[in-house]
Amino acid sequence: xxxxxxxxxxxxxxxxxxxxxxxxxxxxxxxxxxxxxxxxxxxxxxxxxxxxxxxxxxxxxxxxxxxxxxxxxxxxxxxxxxxxxxxxxxxxxxxxxxxxxxxxxxxxxxxxxxxxxxxxxxxxxxxxxxxxxxxxxxxxxxxxxxxxxxxxxxxxxxxxxxxxxxxxxxxxxxxxxxxxxxxxxxxxxxxxxxxxxxxxxxxxxxxxxxxxxxxxxxxxxxxxxxxxxxxxxxxxxxxxxxxxxxxxxxxxxxxxxxxxxxxxxxxxxxxxxxxxxxxxxxxxxxxxxxxxxxxxxxxxxxxxxxxxxxxxxxxxxxxxxxxxxxxxxxxxxxxxxxxxxxxxxxxxxxxxxxxxxxxxxxxx
Length: 364
What we know:
Layout (H helix, E strand, L loop, with lengths): L2 H17 L2 E4 L2 E4 L14 E4 L9 E4 L5 H4 L11 E4 L21 H6 L4 E9 L2 E5 L11 E4 H14 L5 E7 L6 H9 L21 H6 L4 E5 L4 H4 L3 E2 L4 E3 L28 E5 L7 H7 L2 H13 L7 E4 L9 H15 L4 H4 L14
Parallel strand pairs: 5-6, 5-14, 6-9, 9-10, 10-11, 12-13, 13-14
Antiparallel strand pairs: 1-2, 3-4, 6-7, 7-8
Helix pairs in contact: 4-5, 9-10
């Protein structure tokens, strides 16, 4: 083994050692990813979790991303980074009676605090305004409504105001028909001052602006809509003019296969510079998600890399984003940002060496 690979292997060992650091409570230490009895047994960035189908008892598993901008820099184009994305970010089980599937457990402020930077929201006309609903037939109902969109958008505004170096992307499944309905709710929420302008969105596969430039210009909110007409009428970007996306739901969870969803062009269409990978079941089963968000998620990211013409995903959309056997969706993002930033299988290695090497890396 050459000197370069020996050094690289030491880096990876160090990265693994850091990720298995001890977590202490009341003078007693537990090893991260090993047994825990409660929240106090796990260090910051981890929580005590049980995944009966994956391991016995409870373990400290990851609950936060590695912030690639703080670990490395923000000097690359936006499309050279990857972002944790919460599918149906608003669909949270809060005890209210409704006939709608839930997909997340944390509030949106908690999701943002833990590193989610892509939020999938379903917007509808309802009760004279714009609401977030998990519904059907393009109509929102009392039993499918989760709340007014303005409330969630104000939470996002508060996050962007408090975190001036961060960028949030909203991916809207958009059923709003009211004239300028979306524009009004964004204006009322105070988010327009962060709006990334449509005219600056690259087409034909060009790179996006540098993240550092987007931050300097305060263009820190990117919004995509599924409604093609909104690009002309409200200057809200039509998602599939800029992004390719794999099949959502059960059709996107077949090992070794990564087909595009019907609305998207082929994943290897490089005239679209952003890649979104969905990995969640049509009807989520909480007990299964901790398995799905672990090695199978990483395997699918590799499959979709090939399907997308050797391009790594920029957005990874999952349900119940903190559930895993260990590193979960957070480790998957470390993989993506490592590959995008320096060709390494973990973003932490990029912080040590700008060049990578051919050494396998396992994900929990």
